[in-house]
């Protein structure tokens, strides 16, 4: 059951990233068609933007997330138990010991960052540390370490960067159409009107579609991280109890931003934690996560 | 001309197969060794922590001699002997430590002693590390053995004498459902 789920999740992820890449390239060619009347130039420009934007995002993501969340690094003497728990689970996951951060916040939550395991970091809120016992804390730490080991953070960072590129390219495209369209319109009769309309629709819809794909990837990775957490601890109970405690807490994480919401173990914004699964949610509903854990 | 190209291609494919499967076996075997050295480090750590614990507990519960002695006795086995012997000693210690921590319930002073609490946390994290390392060790052994035995890598394995590895077994008594009495 466990390994099946990990494999299934990995397949879904490959599919989603492939979908993303197609979306970016189609958008590029559509804009190229709208502006230059050919499909190739737009694709080339998009690939150039991607080649610059994605590596920069990957390089700076770590530091940015940690800075934005208001977390500070701790040493073993500051919280021996937490340090011990993280150390234990990085042995189980065969990754180097990540850095440990604490966020001063009463809302119980946690997140991980690190585009590769050597640069991993895990952060826990003080609200979480106050409320959970050792077993539950192990469950949460295992979930975060699973994100690092499964390269989820790199995947999510790439997704965020791709959404960024799509929004950027679509923006440039629509501006150029608005301002350049009239000037160019007279002399250029070669373009097919149906293709024109399709291209315009694409420029409008692509950013929205990209957002959906990103959120779908995010939801998927949560299930996978839950499954891997059980692989490490061999104990679903700790994580189940922790998720129950986290979902019952009414507080929002103060320093959380929309951009970082998908990094947390549970959605940091309480009012957005819906009962039903929605295309707009960053996380799967808590009930179905707990249900899956109980079935392991 | 064409036959030479085909021969060269076959030789190349064979060479690539030989190199990758040899490297894969080496990597998996090293992982097994690395997982064992993790266990080794933790067992040593446990060995070093035990005298401190015994001294702390002695001050409060001198007459619990039997429990303390059983810990000290098993301790020496932690750093000597075959892997399975050392794991058995570790299991023995685990049981004895549990009774020491249980015994602290009847000594409120001991239970409140900060030194004791620190030791308790350190020993339980070490215990977990041993458990996780054993899990990782057995997983690595399984991965290595599967690769070693499956076709066509098994041809490589027998050619270069890649020996099988034994997973660590758990003691019989832990397989049974524990007795709970009130």
UniProtKB/TrEMBL annotation, chain A:
Annotated protein name in UniProt: Protease HtpX homolog
PANTHER family recorded: PROTEASE HTPX
Pfam assignment, any one: Peptidase_M48
Subcellular location: Cell membrane
EC nos: 3.4.24.-
Peptidase M48 domain residues: 80-295
MF (Gene Ontology): hydrolase activity
Keyword Hydrolase belongs to the record: yes
Main localization category: membrane
Cofactor info, note text: Binds 1 zinc ion per subunit.
Transmembrane segment boundaries: 12-33, 39-58, 155-174, 194-213
TrEMBL record, chain B:
UniProt key word Ribosomal protein: no
PANTHER family in alphabetical order: MEMBRANE PROTEIN, PROTEIN LEMA
Family designation: Belongs to the LemA family.
Alphabetized InterPro entries for the sequence: LemA-like_dom_sf, MamQ_LemA
Residue spans crossing the bilayer: 6-25
Sorted UniProt keywords: Membrane, Transmembrane, Transmembrane helix
Record membrane topology: Single-pass membrane protein
UniProt name for this protein: LemA protein
Compartments in which it is found: Membrane
Principal subcellular localization: membrane
Matches recorded under Pfam families: LemA
Keyword Glycoprotein: no
Top-rank taxon, per record: Bacteria
């Amino acid at each position: 059951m466990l390994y099946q789920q990990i494999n299934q999740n990995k397949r879904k992820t490959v599919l989603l990233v492939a979908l993303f890449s197609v979306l970016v390239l189609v958008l590029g060619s559509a804009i190229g068609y709208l502006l230059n009347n050919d499909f190739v130039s737009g694709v080339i420009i998009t690939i150039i933007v991607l080649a610059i934007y994605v590596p920069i995002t990957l390089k700076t993501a770590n530091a940015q997330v940690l800075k934005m969340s208001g977390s500070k690094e701790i040493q073993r003497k500051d919280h021996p138990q937490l340090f011990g728990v993280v150390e234990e689970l990085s042995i189980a996951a065969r990754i180097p010991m990540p850095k440990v951060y604490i966020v001063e916040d009463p809302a119980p939550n946690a997140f991980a960052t690190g585009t590769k395991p050597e640069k991993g970091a895990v952060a826990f809120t003080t609200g979480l540390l106050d409320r959970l016992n050792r077993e539950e804390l192990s469950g949460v730490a295992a979930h975060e370490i699973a994100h690092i080991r499964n390269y989820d953070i790199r995947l999510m960072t790439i997704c965020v960067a791709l959404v960024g590129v799509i929004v950027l390219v679509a923006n440039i495209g629509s501006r150029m159409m608005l301002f350049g369209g009239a000037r160019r319109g007279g002399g250029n009769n070669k373009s097919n009107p149906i293709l024109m309309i399709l291209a315009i629709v694409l420029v409008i819809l692509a950013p929205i579609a990209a957002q959906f794909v990103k959120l779908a990837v995010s939801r998927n990775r949560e299930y996978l991280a839950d499954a891997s957490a059980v692989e490490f601890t061999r104990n679903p109970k700790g994580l189940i109890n922790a998720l129950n405690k986290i979902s019952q807490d009414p507080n929002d994480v103060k320093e959380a931003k929309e951009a970082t919401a998908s990094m947390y173990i549970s959605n940091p914004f309480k009012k957005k934690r819906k009962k039903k699964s929605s295309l707009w949610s960053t996380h799967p509903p808590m009930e179905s996560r707990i249900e899956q854990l109980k079935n392991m | 001309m064409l036959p030479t190209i085909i021969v060269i291609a076959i030789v190349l494919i064979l060479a690539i197969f030989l190199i990758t499967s040899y490297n894969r076996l080496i990597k998996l075997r090293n992982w097994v060794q690395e997982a064992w050295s993790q266990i080794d480090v933790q067992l040593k750590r446990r060995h070093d922590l035990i005298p401190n614990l015994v001294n702390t507990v002695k001050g409060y519960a001198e007459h619990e001699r039997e429990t303390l002695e059983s810990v000290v006795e098993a301790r020496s086995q932690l750093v000597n002997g075959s892997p399975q012997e050392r794991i058995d000693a570790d299991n023995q210690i685990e049981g004895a430590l549990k009774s020491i921590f249980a015994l602290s319930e009847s000594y409120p002073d001991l239970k409140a002693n900060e030194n004791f609490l620190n030791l308790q946390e350190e020993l339980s994290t070490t215990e977990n590390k041993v458990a996780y390392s054993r899990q990782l060790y057995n997983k690595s052994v399984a991965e290595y053995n599967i690769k070693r035995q499956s076709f066509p890598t098994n041809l490589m394995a027998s050619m270069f004498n890649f020996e099988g590895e034994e997973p660590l077994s758990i003691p019989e008594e832990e397989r049974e459902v524990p007795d709970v009495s009130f």
